[in-house]
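Give me a protein, keeping tokens residue-aligned:
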Amino acid sequence: MSFLQQTLAAVLFVVVTFTSFYTSAAAETTAQANTEQSATRPNMETLKARYFDAAREGDSAMLGAFYQAGLDVNVADEKGYTALILAAYHGHTGTVNFLISKANANPCQEDNRGNTALMGAIFKGHVSVAKQLVFADCDIDEENEQGQTALMFASLFDRQEIINTLIDKGANPAHMDKAGNSVADIALSQGNYELAKVLRQQNAN
């Protein structure tokens, strides 16, 4: 049994109890409610899906129930996605704040391709989430497996709102990825000549 399976087994009772709170009002009798709960008790895969779905949906209360029962906040799925990475990708500002400040999630953790929660937020254009993550205690020029940084993601997707914040935090506009592309090159590849000009001026300074 894997670590994830072991920890999910440990939270099974708590999560079933937690979710039954929402459904108990609809039960006709106590006996019926107990029967239905027993019949629908989630198996390991269902419980795993419920946990990661809670992150995608920004359900901080459900996530909290898992953590109170002992689940590691930094546990990842088969793609390396943690709850924080998923919450950031889906733009759940409140859940991102909960995971970092209350649950002590690791904001620097990478998925299987080396992408971080910050990169995911920038990719999806969730500026408020990205700005939260910029100020986490991580290397601002953390690279994925292609050698790309958060600033490169911001340049690629023309996230003007976050580019200056990243540079002010110390992101390197002269960084080059493993293919030899600079941040300005990426801006040019998208036809963003003004941004490329600004980035080159940053390099000159």
In short: The chain has a mean pLDDT of 85. The chain is about 60% helix and 0% strand.
